[in-house]
DNA sequence: AAAATGATCAACCGCGTATGC
DNA sequence: GGCATACGCGGTTGATCATTT
């Protein structure tokens, strides 16, 4: 018996997500969390399957995601973890807070593989690949080179872990999105110069441009309007609404209501 | 300036696994 | 134990942008 499709695909939308769809999904999860991905699209008013919603949330919309290229230290940590774990991207991602398995997988295939090959290392086995190079260097030296690389990577891994405080934080697999309630959400600002984490349990949104230009996680056409009189964001179509309550370390705090 | 090629990454697909009945 | 269902994972695709010819 064939496997049932994850959802009724008739009439469901595929392809790139629009800003409106994004905002609907964000608002739904911010206000309700997700107890069942299959139910999310229906309840959020989206013509998508639950799987697509989950992927969009975990890989792009989740507020704790870092954006941008992996740093050199992160790259080396990925290499080290890949040598131990293989293509278990979600496991690897769990060691890099704010990074997704998809992001790491893409980065591996587009950047890291090439780098390793340039270094004469097989990205699959993490061992030297070039027979010519093997002839040029005695085995001991090769081993030393690998040991050096490993040692350097381990050192960098420590730096990354220290930097990200991995040891003390309960890392979770990127697809294992924890149930979060709105009051638990913090939203790192996409503008790097803007925010620093305050540890507040309140929802925080970027301060520099928003609300004037509706700069919310890059959603320039956030579907709603800012009420400058009451300092509130009034959403449309039943979207969640929030109110600016205070300024903390250059980040406005918001409370959903 | 236009076409060809390459690089990047968001999104999809299908399979494996966990869970509940 | 067997089946149905939902979720998670990894491989792959394809659209878009950048670079080269």
From TrEMBL:
Any one cellular-component term (Gene Ontology): nucleus
Residue stretches making up the Myb-like domain: 9-61, 62-112
Organism: Zingiber officinale
UniProt xrefs under InterPro entries: Myb_dom, Myb_TF_plants, SANT/Myb
Subcellular location per the Swiss-Prot or TrEMBL entry: Nucleus
Species lineage: Eukaryota, Viridiplantae, Streptophyta, Embryophyta, Tracheophyta
GO BP field: carboxylic acid biosynthetic process; regulation of DNA-templated transcription
Highest taxon of the lineage: Eukaryota
Name used for this protein in its record: MYB protein
Domain HTH myb-type: 9-61, 62-116
Pfam entry (one): Myb_DNA-binding
Primary subcellular site in the record, as a coarse category: nucleus
């Amino acid at each position: 018996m064939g496997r049932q499709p994850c959802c009724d695909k008739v009439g469901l939308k595929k392809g790139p997500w629009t800003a409106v769809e994004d905002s609907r999904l964000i608002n739904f999860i911010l206000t309700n969390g997700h107890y069942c991905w299959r139910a999310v699209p229906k309840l959020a008013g989206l013509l998508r399957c639950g799987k697509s919603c989950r992927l969009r949330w975990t890989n792009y919309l989740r507020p704790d995601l870092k954006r941008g290229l992996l740093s050199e230290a992160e790259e080396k940590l990925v290499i080290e973890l890949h040598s131990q774990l293989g293509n278990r991207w979600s496991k690897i991602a769990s060691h890099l807070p704010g990074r997704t398995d998809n992001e790491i997988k893409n980065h591996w295939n587009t950047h890291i593989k090439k780098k390793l090959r340039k270094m004469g290392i097989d990205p699959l086995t993490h061992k030297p690949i070039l027979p010519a190079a093997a002839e040029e260097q005695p085995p001991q030296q090769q081993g030393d080179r690998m040991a050096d690389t490993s040692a350097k990577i381990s050192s960098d891994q420590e730096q990354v872990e220290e930097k990200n405080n991995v040891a003390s934080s309960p890392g979770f697999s990127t697809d294992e999105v924890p149930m979060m309630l709105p009051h638990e959400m913090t939203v790192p600002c996409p503008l790097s110069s803007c925010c620093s984490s305050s540890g507040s349990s309140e929802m925080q949104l970027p301060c520099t441009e928003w609300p004037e230009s509706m700069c919310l996680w890059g959603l320039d056409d956030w579907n709603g309007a800012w009420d400058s009189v009451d300092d509130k964001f009034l959403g449309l179509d039943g979207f969640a609404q929030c109110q600016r309550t205070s300024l903390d370390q250059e980040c406005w705090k918001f409370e959903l209501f």
